[in-house]
Amino acid sequence: MLSNSLRIAALVAVAAPLSASPGLFNAPKGYMLIGELDTGNQGSVVVADFNGDGNADMAVADGSLDQVWIFLGNGDGTFRGPSAYSVSTPHSLAVADFNGDGKLDLVAADWLGGTVSILLGNGDGSFQAPLRFAVGSYPSSVAVGDFNGDGIPDVAVAVLYGWPIHFIGER
């Protein structure tokens, strides 16, 4: 049983829709990342099918532990234990196929690192070591879109000090 202590911070709550009442949700299920943490900074959660099995998987940005956690979905509203990928203070996540290989990749805003990290997906729910790109002071949010209409995902980054910047994707 989880206590209400502020030390329990690395918790992901998932609420499944009630089948009889659209728009309402069942009680959330909690997934502990690791035991008790002194601080918690889970800045972002994204949902996608990272391993191609047709089930929704989750990626969680954990700035306290400098990790992106991947939870692979079982297809019934539950998830397998997480895998961790080292990313400097991830604050925000977005998903796209950045290298055109048909496998979903992740981009993370690295709050204290002043970078964004691209984690290229292997298609089986695992990811390669992050590729880092300098963006300036305190990137707080990332978003993906096709800003120039070439069919290749581009990344927009909001930074604390300065104008939002973006990268035009190339392959």
List the topology elements.
Blueprint: E1 11-14, E2 29-32, E3 42-48, E4 57-62, E5 67-71, E6 83-86, E7 90-96, E8 105-110, E9 115-119, E10 131-134, E11 139-145, E12 154-159, E13 165-167
Antiparallel strand pairs: 1-2, 3-4, 4-5, 5-6, 7-8, 8-9, 9-10, 11-12, 12-13
Features:
13 strands; globular; 4-stranded antiparallel beta sheet; single chain; 171 residues; disordered N terminus; mainly beta
Report on the structure:
By secondary structure, the protein is mainly β. It has strands at 11-14, 29-32, 42-48, 57-62, 67-71, 83-86, 90-96, 105-110, 115-119, 131-134, 139-145, 154-159, 165-167. Strands 3-4-5-6 form a 4-stranded antiparallel β-sheet, with no helix packed on it.
* Strand-pairing-aware structural class: mainly beta
State the helix count. 0
Using the alpha-carbon principal axes, give the shape.
Answer: globular
| Main sheet: strands, sense, barrel | 4 strands, antiparallel
Estimated radius of gyration: 17 Å
What percent of residues adopt helix (DSSP H or I)? Answer: under 10%
- Topology order in helix (H) and strand (E) letters: EEEEEEEEEEEEE
Low-confidence stretches: 1-19, 34-39
How are the strands ordered across the major sheet?
A: 3-4-5-6
Mean pLDDT metric: 78
Q: What is the tally of beta strands?
A: 13
Q: Summary?
A:
With 171 residues, the protein is mainly beta. Helices cover 0% and strands 40% of the residues.
